[in-house]
Amino acid sequence: MLFTANKNKLPSPKKPDGTRARVFVGMSGGVDSSVSAVLLKKAGFDVTGVHIEVYHPPELECNWRDERLDAIKVCEKIGIPFLDCDLQAEYKKDVFDYMVETYKKGETPNPDVFCNKYVKFGGFLDFALKNGADYIATGHYAQHQFSKEDADEMLKGVDHNKDQTYFLWTMPQEKLQKVLFPIGHLEKKKVRKLAEKYDLHNQNKKDSQGICFLGHVDIKEFLAEHVRQEPGKVLNTNGTVIGTHPGVLSFTIGERHGFSIDPAHKTPDMPKLFVVSKDIEKNTITVGSKDILEKQSEQNTVLTLEQCNWISGNPDPNKKYQGRIRYRGTLLPCTLVAGPVGTWQAQFETPHAAVAAGQSAVFYDDDVCIGGGVIAATK
Q1: Which of the residues are catalytic?
Q2: Exposure string (b/e) for 171-185, b if CB count within 10 Å is 16 or more?
Q3: CA 49: distance to chain centroid?
Q4: Dihedral, CA of residue 371, residue 251, residue 355 and residue 100, to nearest 10
Q5: Which of 79, 193, 334, 346 has the fewest C-beta atoms under 10 angstroms from its C-beta?
């Protein structure tokens, strides 16, 4: 399928019995979800704004009350009801604790992916359906192509700089059929213009950054609060001790900050050093130049994937797809083949650099996001 602008057609706002379809919109207080609510109301849906309350660790500064107030103000402005949805327990168990446990295993988690799976399109969707909603909607930059005959499809957002399908690959078909992405066919600048047109007070509000609902988090400081770590040794690729680090679990392959090199081992022509491997049992990291990292990455052409989800059916092993291993990462051609015990293997024609176990690999058929999995191993 070749990309065509605005595949993001909404379903009819009228149900077969003549009543309006009800949509619960996840309202973060930001401009994207606010404009989503406006567009749905303008389209004729019965819209309710919902603020999702999640767990916040006590050591992190949190502005959730301000975000909730912004959501309330938008709902009042456009004349729709407002509800609260308490998902603190779900977030604590399935996002926060998952993130901590994944780091403990020496892997690099992707909490935004699991926040979408268990909170926004898990607990929130359940809450909405139990309270009479026909659909939920969010301000994600993705497109939903409804189909009357075949499976629905999820496509990249028109604004490829904002496309968020990388974080949505866990969406199963039965849930996708209940989800609307009202701004997926728009560029971000157009969304802000609409917020200005409808005189929304948050039209110039900055985009949220960092981990889903937690914002910007210094991972090393976070782990210091929640995971016991011991300082360890930094090795060069010859095995010589050249420095120290605060704890091996807080590093990921390809990282170049957070460790210290002893002055005795520094030279004027020393290149920038990157983490090329780590040993959890010995509590050591090995660092090397970018050339060494890239040479090591030449082996990363086959990824073994776990916890896979294929949105519209299993991939065709004889077809060429494109895959990325990080948000906005380079899309590289690959094939997908089923492996043993529910795993899949992605065979890339060229290697990905700095592959980290625990991260998501997401795959596309041109602009259709077909699904993905969690990286378990590379070779």
Answers
A1: 115, 212
A2: bebebbebbbbbbbb
A3: 23
A4: -20
A5: 79
